[in-house]
From TrEMBL:
Keywords: Metal-binding, Zinc. This is 3-methyladenine DNA glycosylase. The lineage of its organism: Bacteria, Bacillati, Actinomycetota, Actinomycetes, Micrococcales. SUPFAM superfamilies: DNA-glycosylase. It comes from Brachybacterium vulturis. The keyword Zinc applies. Pfam families: Adenine_glyco (PF03352).
Length: 212
């Protein structure tokens, strides 16, 4: 089943059963809906930095990233200039990768342009959530969990068109998982269907209803 039963009797996937910090992240945050612009921007940035690395590496530097990137305030990050890039390249609390640092700043500016272009109430979060599928995957084992989807390919294409960087289909699928846009918790996991967005059998939950 690729599930591990913890000392608390709860079933989790192997990746969330190795360390306490990963277990806490899985139990309380991963896959829960995030719908605000700052929250989505933060996770977009972290998923970009995670590319080629383990999620544990990023998670353990998360507070460092928040300090370095002004709490992921879109307006503040969009105003970063060359001196800020140099500062970030010297910051041992984050991943010091020039391309990813510059992409995060570019993506903040693109988020503002998106907001300005589409009008009040339309943000990066709105755009990402508009690619929610009609049904979410039903993985039994880890090998059943996809790494991309038609929706993540389409989202990546749209974000690239709008000037975003480090937003490939695989990264966007990981973002959608993290935000709750899709539910890829394994069947049998204690977290399956707990987001309020998806039922345990993979169908959308109507607003105001309790998932089953």
């Amino acid at each position: 089943m690729d599930l591990s039963i913890g000392d608390d009797g709860l079933a989790r996937p192997a990746w969330a059963s190795v360390h306490d910090d990963l277990r806490e992240y899985y139990d309380t945050e991963w896959g829960m809906p995030v719908r605000d612009e700052r929250g989505v921007f933060e996770r977009l940035a972290l998923e970009g930095f995670q590319s080629g690395l383990s999620w544990a590496t990023i998670l353990r530097r998360r507070e460092g990233f928040r300090r370095a990137f002004a709490g992921f305030d879109v307006e503040e990050v969009a105003a970063f200039g060359p001196a800020d890039v140099d500062r970030l390249l010297a910051d041992e609390g984050i991943i010091r990768h020039r391309g990813k640092i510059e992409a995060t700043i570019t993506n903040a500016r693109a988020s503002i342009e998106l907001r300005d272009e589409q009008g009040p109430g339309t943000t990066l979060a709105d755009l990402v959530w508009s690619y929610r599928p009609a049904r979410t995957p039903m993985p039994v084992v880890a090998a059943d969990v996809p790494t991309t989807s038609a929706e993540s390919v389409a989202l990546a294409t749209e974000l690239k068109r709008r000037g975003f960087r480090f937003v490939g289909p695989t990264t966007m699928f990981a973002l959608m998982e993290a935000l709750g846009v899709v539910d890829t918790h394994l069947l049998g996991s204690h977290r399956r269907g707990t987001s309020g967005v998806w039922s345990t059998d993979g169908f959308p939950v109507a607003e105001g209803h309790t998932p089953s």
